[in-house]
Structures are given as C-alpha cells and as structure tokens.
UniProtKB/TrEMBL annotation:
Protein species of origin: Clostridium thermopalmarium DSM 5974
Family annotation (InterPro entries): FAD/NAD-bd_sf (IPR036188), FAD/NAD-binding_dom (IPR023753), Ferredoxin-NADP_redctase_2 (IPR050097), Pyr_nucl-diS_OxRdtase_2_AS (IPR008255), Thioredox_Rdtase (IPR005982)
Lineage: Bacteria, Bacillati, Bacillota, Clostridia, Eubacteriales
Top-rank lineage group of the source organism: Bacteria
GO molecular function term, any single one: thioredoxin-disulfide reductase (NADPH) activity
GO biological process, one term: removal of superoxide radicals
Protein name: Thioredoxin reductase
Enzyme Commission number(s) of this protein: 1.8.1.9
Co-factor binding details: Binds 1 FAD per subunit.
Assembly notes: Homodimer.
Amino acid sequence: MEKKHEYYDVVIIGGGPAGLTSAIYCGRAKLKTILIEKSLVGGLATYTSEVANYPGFPEGISGTELMNLFHKQAKGFGVKFKLTDVKSVDFEGEDKLVETFRIIYHAKAVIISTGGKPRLTEAVNEQNFLYDKGISFCATCDAEFYTDKTVMIVGSGDSAIEEGIFLTKFAKKVIISARKDEGTMRANKAAQDEAVKNPKIQFVWNTVVESFQGDERLNKVILKNLKNNEFTSVPVDGCFLFIGYEPNTEIFQGKINLTEKGYILTNENMETNIKGVFAVGDVREKVLRQVATAVGDGAIAGVVVEKYISKFGER
C-alpha cells in the first residue's frame, strides 16, 4: 500500500502536558501543527486522581480534567490531532519525516513528547496478572473495583503514596511495600504525613516483590525482606505498581543523543543535537518530572520552534 504524504510546519509526537503545551504555542503562532498520540491525549497525567500543586487550581483538579482543558485549548488554536502510532522517523535532512501506518508526515520541525511507560518489578508471574487480572498502574481508573477489598501498592514515591491515600476512599486496607528502611520514603512530606496517620494504610518496609500468585486473578503477593531474605505471603485482591517509568525513546535510538537510561539530551531551549528536532517533558533528562515542569518545557519549545521556522522564509 502506497502511503499518503502530508506536510506541516510542526509535528509533535506525544500528547502529554508538554506536547499539548507546545501545541498551544505553535497553534497560537499560526504554525501548521499536528500532534500524534498513540493512545490517550493527556498521557500519564490523565491517570492522576488529583493534581494538587498545579498553579491556578487551589482546590485541586483531576488529571483528566486538566488535560481535557489543555486539549480543548490546543484545538481552539487550530492544531490537528491524530491517534496513531509512529513507526519510524528520519531526521537527517531539513525535511523531517515521521512515518505512521498509513501516512508519512513531513515537517520543518519535530517536537518529541513521548513520555514514558510504567516500570515493572520483573517479579515471577508478573506478566500473567497485568491490567485486568489484578496488577494495575492507575488508581483513578481502577479504585472502585476494590471497594471494601485489600490492595497492595509497590513503591514509596509521590505517585505511590498519593495514590495509596486515594485508594483508602474505596479499599478497606492498603498495604504499601517499600524497599527502604522504616520511615524513609521518596514522597513529599505532606503525603508522607497523611499516609502514616491513615488507619487504613499499612507499611511493609525493606521489601521487594518476589512473585505474584493466583489462579485466574491475582490473590497473593510474595514479598522478600531485604534485611533477612525471608519471604512473606500477603493475600490481596489487587496490586498497584508505582515504581517509576522508562522513557519511550526506542524509535529514536541512533537518531538523536540519549542518556544511558534512554532519556533525550537537550539544552535549555529544548533543542536536541539535531537541528529542527526538539524534546520536551518527561522524555528529557531532567531533575523534576511534573505537570508544571512539562508545561514549562512545552512553552519554551513552542517559542523556539516558531523562531526556528521563521528562518525558513529568510532563505
């Protein structure tokens, strides 16, 4: 099948908060822009039950609501959206190519905003229970299924603790497996304090998941104590993994400079080592990965891209 060719000023790959912000800026600058997202516009931010620290929303706002507002604003500025998967890219010439199943998109500039995917524990039987069989990555999506049941959370960062607190609105018990020593968490202090005081939350310190057990569905998690190597069988109805994520940069390997962990290297203008190719949001090598920082990245890229493209008319 011969592929169709479409031409744009800007192609944005990935529709999280960084990509959406870039889209808003590019659209407002009257650049012909398309945003390609493979699954859900808004990205992982849509899975957050409450964004409490994004400026302008003192009462908090759900990730889904916030991303819907971003999406609406970008569409209002004329940005096109396409739900499909990017198969390959070619950044060698001034004419950048982004190839999907049916269409090859040509662009003067490409903004990469592909974010990351949830990291797995690599424990025994994990693949057998992913998603609808007991292992989840989204408390907002699945909390209601565990009303009056027992769930486990693996992790001790912001997402783990905050989503654990959210789950207590539904579950009768939330067990948090943390690999660090008692009282040591990576989460923000406010969330830590709230979790420790919550009577529905039980911490199991110095532990990692050895295996997941069950028949059709998960019903047991085997934890290994890192201090004494002893194993504990914990009956659960479900398990939520919040142990970080890995950057979605597989298709960019060999195309642009990446870190050893696969994150994209940029300068403060969001420029990669390839002229006309930019990267924003959680896919970048950076200190902090939150909606607010993603928005900052997207805004910078949008402005820099507009200036970059304006030079085409001067040639």
